[in-house]
Amino acid sequence: MAAAAAPGALGAWQAGRVRLVAASCAPLGPRWRLPGSLTGPRLGSAIWARGRAPAAGGLPLRRGYGSEVKTDDELRVRYLEEENRGIVVLGINRAHAKNSFSKNLVKMLSKAVDALKSDKKVRTVIVRSEVPGIFCAGADLKERVKMNPSEVGPFVSKIRAVINEIANLPVPTIAALDGLALGGGLELALACDIRVAASSAKMGLVETKLAIIPGGGGTQRLPRAIGMSLAKELIFSARVLDGQEAKAVGLVSHVLEQNQEGDAAYRKALDLAREFLPQGPVAMRVAKLAINQGMETIPTKDRLEGLLAFKEKRSPRYKGE
């Protein structure tokens, strides 16, 4: 990856409130207050917002969008309300580093996903950016260059692990690409079930420019999304596609002209998520599992025997195992 890649509950749902999960609790202004008590397991510190706040881009939030507190958190977890109840938005917020993966962001993502996968009230997860023009620029190379050589391998492994955790969430996941998605950023999007992009978005697995290869699953997920030959071409060339080009090759499902607020892909992701809400939750989980497993090679002993027999130029001795 490179830059320029068990049942439980999060707590009680309360009408008119949205919990924002963060690594630390930022000071609250005069419009905000903490409730007297919080129930259920907590992920980091929780901030509860009362009333409405402006959405990203400065426009008022539409009905059911949930509330938001302006903090410096690298990851904002937002539970939407009313007709959007059941939709959770993971918003990456590292403007100073183009939303690149830092140790702290990876840790926060892992904690958030660990909580989401066991919360049966969650019906769809949207991964988006809180930073205009950027989705995720991959690993934070400025942070990585300061690491000891012994730290680099484990760090890359943790990024790969959290991307796999997102891929394994039991509910539908949608990546809203309203900006740049390079290296690990695109690998994060590839781990989602559906990708939606603004036409102005840029995306690509550009690791070969740095004499490395995609390390967050891109070498497996990109071929499954667009085919092996084209995936090889894009990785070998480190080519960057815009939204329209990505739609043409099947990398994204929908492409939209960007709006003035810079969140066209996010709004389309919300529309898709609303389509999923009325469906049976158990059926959705089982359908995702069946589709994912159906795309994998069947790991049977007979399959291995067949390959071995072909190699040895003999008839296979299948045992039904």
How does this model look, in words?
The protein is α/β, with parallel strands linked by helices and 321 residues long. It contains ten helices and twelve strands. The chain has an eight-stranded mixed beta sheet, with helices on both faces. Strands 6-8-10-11 form a four-stranded mixed beta sheet. β3 (75-79) and β4 (87-92) form a beta hairpin. α1 (103-116) packs parallel to α3 (149-167) and α3 (149-167) runs parallel beside α4 (184-190). The longest helix has 19 residues, at 149-167. The chain is globular, with a radius of gyration of 21 Å. The two termini are 38 Å apart. 40% of the residues are buried.
Give structural attributes.
321 residues, alpha/beta, 8-stranded mixed β-sheet, 4-stranded mixed β-sheet, 12 strands, 34% helix
Mean pLDDT comes to 81
Beta-strand content estimate: 15-25%
N-to-C SSE string, H for helix and E for strand: EEEEHEEHHEEHEEHHEHEHHH
Q: Please mark out the parts with pLDDT under 50 across 5 or more consecutive residues, or reply none.
A: 3-65, 67-71
Global geometry: globular
Radius of gyration from CA coordinates: 21 Å
N- to C-terminal separation?
Answer: 38 Å
The largest β sheet comes out as: 8 strands, mixed
